């Protein structure tokens, strides 16, 4: 009897913990705790707040392909099949416009803030391994790092005059552990020779493929040794963590 009571008490405790965890996630402001639907809703709210045209563009993105395919179906006397196809195409069109405007809103919101390069790095595919803010100065000049098929890349953001020696110093440190892998540097900004925040992810993705997955893993291990030898850089206050919403930003 006592054993049965202990089992019931344990079961009741598990249920209570499960309910408490569900309630915590429901009230959480951390995107990592949100489900896919809430991620989309919160991303929509954030975007629509700064982009008043978003609802109308999404309506147009749905209605135009739906109407075109429905009319085509009526003309071919197959309105049901083409109507269903139009619904799918309309949904995809609306979501594509949503993803495009959401990315644009995020870049607009965070451009110019210290550490904003992290937003662009989170838009890269999973085959890229990014480490935001590996170095930062008291003036909030920042260096990020990403490693992927296009190579080992250091991204600097800040005042160009101060940023140049900081990037050069970081490049030398990385060359000591990269063993023949070229260390490339990029300066963020809108001046000549710089890459704007909203173009950074595409700029990196278009770089020629020079590293295999095996080589990426090898270089990654060496970078861990380098990072272990340096003091942890203080993260600048600015860009939010986009972990929960980045799938929506990528259009997935």
Automatic annotation (TrEMBL):
Lineage summary: Bacteria, Bacillati, Actinomycetota, Actinomycetes, Propionibacteriales
Protein name: DUF4191 domain-containing protein
Keywords: Membrane, Transmembrane, Transmembrane helix
Transmembrane segments: 53-75, 81-100
Amino acid composition bias (Basic and acidic residues), ranges on this chain: 1-26
InterPro entries tied to this protein: DUF4191 (IPR025445)
Pfam family, one: DUF4191
Key word Membrane present: yes
Disordered, as annotated region: 1-31, 231-252
């Amino acid at each position: 009897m006592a054993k049965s009571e202990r089992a019931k008490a344990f079961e009741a405790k598990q249920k209570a913990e499960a309910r408490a965890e569900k309630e915590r996630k429901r009230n959480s402001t951390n995107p990592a705790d949100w489900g896919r639907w809430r991620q989309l809703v919160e991303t929509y709210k954030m975007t629509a707040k700064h982009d008043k045209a978003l609802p109308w563009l999404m309506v147009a993105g749905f209605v135009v392909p739906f109407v075109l395919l429905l009319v085509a179906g009526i003309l071919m006397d197959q309105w049901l099949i083409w109507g269903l196809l139009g619904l799918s195409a309309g949904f995809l069109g609306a979501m594509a416009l949503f993803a495009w405007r959401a990315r644009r809103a995020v870049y607009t919101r965070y451009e110019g803030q210290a550490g904003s390069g992290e937003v662009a790095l989170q838009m890269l595919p999973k085959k890229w391994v990014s480490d935001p803010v590996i170095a930062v100065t008291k003036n909030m000049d920042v260096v990020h790092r990403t490693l992927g098929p296009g190579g080992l890349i250091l991204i600097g953001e800040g005042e160009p005059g101060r940023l140049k020696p900081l990037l050069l110093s970081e490049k030398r440190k990385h060359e000591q552990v990269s063993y023949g892998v070229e260390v490339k540097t990029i300066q963020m900004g809108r001046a000549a020779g710089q890459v704007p925040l909203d173009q950074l992810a595409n700029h990196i993705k278009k770089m020629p493929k020079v590293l295999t997955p095996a080589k990426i893993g090898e270089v990654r291990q060496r970078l861990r040794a380098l990072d272990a030898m340096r003091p942890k850089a203080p993260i600048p206050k600015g860009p939010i963590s986009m972990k929960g919403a980045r799938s929506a930003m990528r259009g997935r």
